[in-house]
């Protein structure tokens, strides 16, 4: 079993508390994505699990075994970083074979060869095995870097923004492949990203970190539809959720104590109306949808609309809320 547990883990760097009493469990075979703003403690969490940092307090366990005293080599964990970190003078084949050649592994040549070829096929780089790693595109290099982690067959993968340096098309392709590989191999994977699409599409569960604390963890759908507070609500959704005063828009009566209403596209009803309560100031045509930028008094609202909806800048519309999210004074969700 390769479940990972952090229990009450705290880690400071000098005065800075990077991780504050963090409790997190990743089940065996689960794909968990950590999302959070810069400095939230995502990388530090990975490094604590890898054994590259030692907790000040609390316990890190892998497969039920406390590993606080164990170095990285003993933890059977593979780390994939944002930078490719390949050996430039070696071929793709040699880069993939390298982790298997350590004397401690005692693998024979045929076993190494079979494993390299199997993983190369998995990450779809088998046609470039003899290329030098410097003569690859960014996407190919990152496939090799991921392959080099896979070839070792560790029980846990830790990935720190492995796709962020790639262009959007490659990111989309590798996202699908990573998810497929993780399913096929049944590996436990903890993945850090700023990219909410990666989080939504790959994660079994998303953990939202803020200031070294786990604010919420749940399936992508739970985190999106049932955010625990304003912070979580603002992390997911494109365009960004609109955070509005409780009495701005007509709609259902908010629960007592409502300070802020969270309205995503699906919480807003739009109708063209010359005496409507809002005005469209800009329409961005994105092809399959339109981005509408709306003002209502001093407030700005952004939402999506069907490209067939005949609206232009300057049009007045009436905006109504339907089942939005309600938040109290302290930012916590009320309903
Ligand atoms: N080695 C270190 N020395 C001093 N401070 C550190 C060190 N490592 C991390 N920190 C601090 O701890 C906090 C958390 O850092 P961490 O790298 O875990 O954040 P992150 O969520 O991964 O951020 P990013 O998204 O920018 O990578 C930050 O304030 C950072 O400056």
Describe it.
The radius of gyration is 24 Å and the shape is globular. The strands form 4 sheets. Strands 6-7-8-3-9-10 form a 6-stranded mixed sheet, sandwiched between helices. The protein has a 5-stranded antiparallel sheet with strand order 13-17-14-15-16, with no helix packed on it. The protein contains 8 helices and 18 strands. Strand 9 and strand 10 (213-218) form a beta hairpin. It has 2 domains: 4-235, Rossmann fold (3-Layer(aba) Sandwich), CATH 3.40.50.300; 242-327, OB fold (Dihydrolipoamide Acetyltransferase, E2P), CATH 2.40.50. It is an alpha+beta fold. Helix 3 crosses helix 4. The protein starts with a strand and ends in an 8-residue tail after the last strand.
Task: Note the main attributes of this structure.
335 residues, alpha+beta, Rossmann fold, OB fold (Dihydrolipoamide Acetyltransferase, E2P), 2 domains, 6-stranded mixed sheet, 8 helices, 24% helix, binds adenosine-5'-triphosphate, transport, ATP hydrolysis activity
């Amino acid at each position: 079993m390769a479940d990972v547990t952090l229990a009450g883990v705290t880690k400071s760097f000098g005065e800075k508390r990077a991780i504050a009493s963090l409790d997190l469990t990743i089940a065996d075979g689960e794909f968990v994505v950590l999302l959070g703003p810069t400095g939230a403690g995502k990388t530090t969490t990975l490094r604590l699990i890898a054994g590259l940092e030692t907790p000040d307090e609390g316990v890190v366990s892998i497969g039920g075994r406390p590993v606080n005293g164990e170095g990285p080599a003993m933890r059977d964990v593979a780390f994939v970083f944002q930078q490719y970190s390949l050996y430039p003078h070696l071929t793709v084949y040699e880069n993939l074979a390298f982790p298997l050649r350590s004397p401690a592994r005692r693998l024979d040549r045929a076993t190494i060869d079979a494993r390299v070829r199997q993983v190369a096929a998995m990450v779809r780089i088998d046609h470039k095995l003899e290329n030098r790693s410097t003569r690859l595109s960014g996407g190919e290099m990152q496939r090799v870097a991921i392959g080099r982690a896979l070839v070792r067959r560790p029980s846990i993968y830790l990935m720190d923004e492995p796709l962020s340096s790639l262009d959007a098309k490659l990111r989309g392709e590798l996202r699908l492949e990573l998810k497929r590989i993780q399913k096929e191999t049944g590996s436990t994977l903890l993945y850090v990203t700023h990219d909410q699409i990666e989080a939504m599409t790959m994660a079994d569960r998303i953990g939202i970190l803020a200031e070294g604390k786990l604010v919420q963890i749940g399936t992508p759908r739970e985190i999106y539809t049932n955010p625990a507070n304003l912070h979580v609500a603002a992390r997911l959704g494109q365009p960004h959720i609109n955070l509005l005063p409780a009495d701005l828009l007509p709609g259902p009566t908010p629960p007592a104590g409502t300070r802020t209403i969270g309205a995503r596209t699906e919480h807003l009803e739009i109708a063209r109306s010359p005496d409507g309560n809002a005005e469209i100031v800009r329409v961005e045509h994105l092809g399959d949808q339109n981005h509408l930028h709306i003002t209502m008094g001093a407030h700005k609202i952004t939402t999506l609309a069907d490209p067939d909806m005949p609206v232009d800048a300057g049009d007045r519309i009436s905006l109504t809320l339907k089942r939005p999210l309600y938040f109290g004074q302290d930012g916590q969700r009320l309903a």
